[in-house]
Design brief:
The chain has 18 helices and two strands. The chain has a two-stranded antiparallel ribbon. It has helices spanning 10-21, 24-36, 40-68, 72-78, 94-130, 142-145, 148-166, 169-197, 202-210, 221-232, 239-245, 253-281, 295-307, 311-347, 354-381, 388-415, 418-425, 432-463; strands at 82-83, 90-91. Helix 3 (40-68) packs across helix 11. The protein is 76% helix and 1% strand. By secondary structure, the protein is mainly α. 50% of the residues are buried. Bound molecules: phenylalanine.
Length: 464
């Protein structure tokens, strides 16, 4: 049976955590959620919740993982049950971990389908660049949305790539590969942002992003912002619990969590700077009455890129950048799923190897991805205005994820002793962690649950 892995270097951990956090959430979901919720005002909500809800939870997950050196399923099983008020019964916190695990499995199955779309556009632009015969290619999602098999094929290529990396374990798998991918991703992103900001629509895009007009927010914007913050920081899925379980005792958790949050948030805003000048240039977002859908990234944007001089080159660069981010995030999800399953089999004393677990779970996720792949065909045929993926995404990320986040904040606050939390949070070399500890504890115990509950109530009020 294999021994539990560790990050080789602290930088390796940062890159893997940032690679997991930065993904389709930043480049695909953030722009369309932002335009649905009115631009600048939503950016303010998003920044506020990233620091006050996302960061405390992220630090909490890292602490939970390092305390028990296990994934979210067994870590929450090890927490002290909490007394149920007014009765002599105790509430076990293991359901939180199980729900969190389930969420990663379901999310990876549709994340793989969208990553497959990215692969499709990447190859299309590649051929457009190298074969003059196809320069007239018109980027469209139609060939994919009308063929479930095609989507399955692309998703299986993506899942296979993830499995091959995760198979190698923590250090030689995710740490090494994401470490190599992130610099390429950063260079591509910066070059694309420079290109995008040189477009005439960039002034308007900057205003749209950074000029808050609070009358554009709706009651549901709060839960959309919280759901998105958790999704983009990979919190609520147990990812950071697993990543924390690979941290050394000497690594400072609070500052690690802070850095990951800041970099991911900065990259979301950078993604906005990349996408909005292009989207506005292509006329897909009207200021004031903003409405874009997930098709923005897969139709409007590639079409516009193709119309620019050197468009095939920029298109290819854009989709390679997008694919690297999707791969880093999928690796994070897959690592969590595999590591939880390995912990579980160790507990049950089953003699299984990482390889067997990786292939079995990969097969299961591929089977599950048939649901989003084929449903999009059915929804398309029935001319349903809201696509299946959009609908699934909204339920999972705006509803289920905040609920799991709520469960985790309560579980970590009440199930882990004060002494343990203090021991994990306070770092002797960083004196400020002593002063910050009570704020973090307060935020996780009271502020995070309260804000999530209020946002869910507002969401319900909005829909009745
Ligand atoms: N944070 C990733 C993104 O923004 C998604 C993700 C969620 C990755 C959970 C890993 C775990 O795309």
């Amino acid at each position: 049976m294999e021994k539990r892995g560790y990050w080789k270097t602290r930088l390796g951990f940062y890159l893997a955590a940032i690679g997991s956090a930065v993904g389709l959430g930043n480049l695909w979901r953030f722009p369309y959620i932002l335009s649905e919720n009115g631009g600048g005002a939503f950016v303010v909500l998003y920044l506020l919740f990233a620091l006050t809800v996302g960061l405390p939870l992220l630090v909490g997950e890292l602490i939970l993982g390092r305390t028990f050196r296990q994934g979210v399923v067994l870590s929450t099983e090890s927490l002290q049950p909490i007394p149920i008020f007014g009765t002599r019964r105790w509430l076990s916190l293991k359901w939180v971990g199980r729900l969190s695990f389930l969420l990663s499995v379901v999310v990876l199955s549709y994340y793989a389908v969208i990553s497959g779309w990215v692969l499709h556009f990447m190859t299309q632009f590649f051929f457009a660049l190298f074969s003059p015969m196809t320069t007239s290619f018109d980027p469209s999602l139609d060939p994919l949305l009308t063929s479930g098999w095609m989507q399955m094929l692309l998703a299986s290529v993506h899942i296979l790539v993830t499995l091959v990396v995760v198979l190698k374990g923590v250090q030689d798998g995710i740490e090494r590969w994401v470490g190599a991918m992130m610099p390429v991703f950063a260079v591509l992103l910066v070059s694309l942002v420079i290109k995008s900001l040189s477009l005439p629509s960039s002034g308007e895009a900057l205003r749209f992003l950074f000029y808050p007009n609070f009358s554009q927010l709706s009651l549901s914007s709060f839960s959309h912002a919280i759901g998105h913050v958790l999704f983009t920081l990979s919190v609520g899925f147990g990812t950071m619990v697993t990543f924390g379980s690979y941290l050394k005792d000497s690594d400072a958790i609070a500052s690690s969590g802070f850095r990951v949050t800041i970099v991911d948030t900065f990259l979301s805003l950078t993604a906005g700077l990349l996408i909005f000048p292009i989207a506005l240039g292509a006329g897909s977002v009207e200021l004031g009455a903003t409405r874009t859908d997930p098709g923005l990234l897969f139709e409007t944007l590639p079409r516009f890129l193709m119309s620019l001089p050197g468009g095939a080159f920029f298109g290819l660069a854009f989709f390679v950048c997008l694919y690297l981010s999707a791969l880093g995030a999928s690796l994070g999800l897959m690592e969590v799923i595999v590591s939880n399953a390995l912990d579980w089999s160790k507990k049950k004393k089953w003699k299984v190897q990482r390889m067997e677990v990786v292939w079995t779970l990969g097969g299961l996720i591929l089977l599950l991805s048939a649901i989003p792949a084929f449903s999009s065909v059915i929804f398309r045929a029935s001319k349903n205005s809201k696509g299946f993926l959009e609908w699934l995404d909204a339920i999972l990320i705006n509803g289920c994820l905040p609920l799991v986040g709520l469960g985790l904040s309560l579980a970590i606050s009440h199930g882990l002793s004060e002494m343990e939390k203090k021991r994990q949070f306070i770092d002797e070399n960083k004196i400020e962690t002593q002063a910050l500890f009570p704020y973090w504890r307060w935020a996780l115990k009271y502020f995070v649950p309260l804000v999530i509950i209020i946002s869910l109530i507002l969401q319900i009020l909005n829909s009745i």
